[in-house]
Amino acid sequence: MAASVVYIEDRTSDAALVERVLSFLPDVRYVAAAEGKAGIVAARTLRPDVLLLDLQLPDMPGLEVLGTIRGEAATKDIPVVVISADAGPEFETAAYSAGANAFLTKPIQVDQLLNVVEGLLAIGRARAPRA
Fold first, then answer.
1. Using alpha carbons only, how large is the chain's radius of gyration in Å?
2. What is the DSSP annotation of 84-117?
3. Model confidence pLDDT, tens digit, residues 105-124
C-alpha cells in the first residue's frame, strides 16, 4: 500500500521541489495544498502518513494549521514536519511546542528531507497493524 505525504506550501517552486524529491521514494503519493485551510481539509480527508507544513501561508499562520491538526481526533497523530525559511531558534521552539515532529529550514536540503520523511514513514509502518 502506498504511503501519502501532504505538503501545505503556497510557493509553487518549493512544492514542485518537494514533489521531485519525494519521487525518489517508492510508493509515496504526494498531494500539495497552497493554503492552510485546504491543507487542513486534505489532512482530514486523506489522513496522510506525513504532513509537511510551511509556516508562512497566505490565509492563516502555519502554527495555527498545526494547532488545528493537533486538536482534532482524526488528525492529531499525523506526523508533521515544519519546513520554514524562518530559521531562528524561536521559530523551531514554537513549532515543537505546537506539536511538530521535526523542523527543517529552507533552502531545503534534499538528503535531510528524505531522511526525515523516510524515518517517519518507517515508524508509521512499524506501528501499522499487520494484515
1. 14
2. ES--SHHHHHHHHHHT-SEEEESSP-HHHHHHHH
3. 999 999 999 999 999 998 87
The side-by-side arrangement of strands in the sheet containing 3-8 is 28-33, 3-8, 50-53, 80-84, 102-105
Q: Which pTM value belongs to this model?
A: 0.94
Is 65:40 a contact under the CB 8 Å cutoff? Answer: yes
CATH numbers and ranges of domains, the chain: 3-127 (3.40.50.2300)
Q: Cα separation of 119 and 106, whole Å?
A: 20
Q: Which among 124, 64, 73, 126 is positioned nearest to 99, based on CA atoms?
A: 64
Q: Which residue is associated with the grid cell 504526494?
A: 30
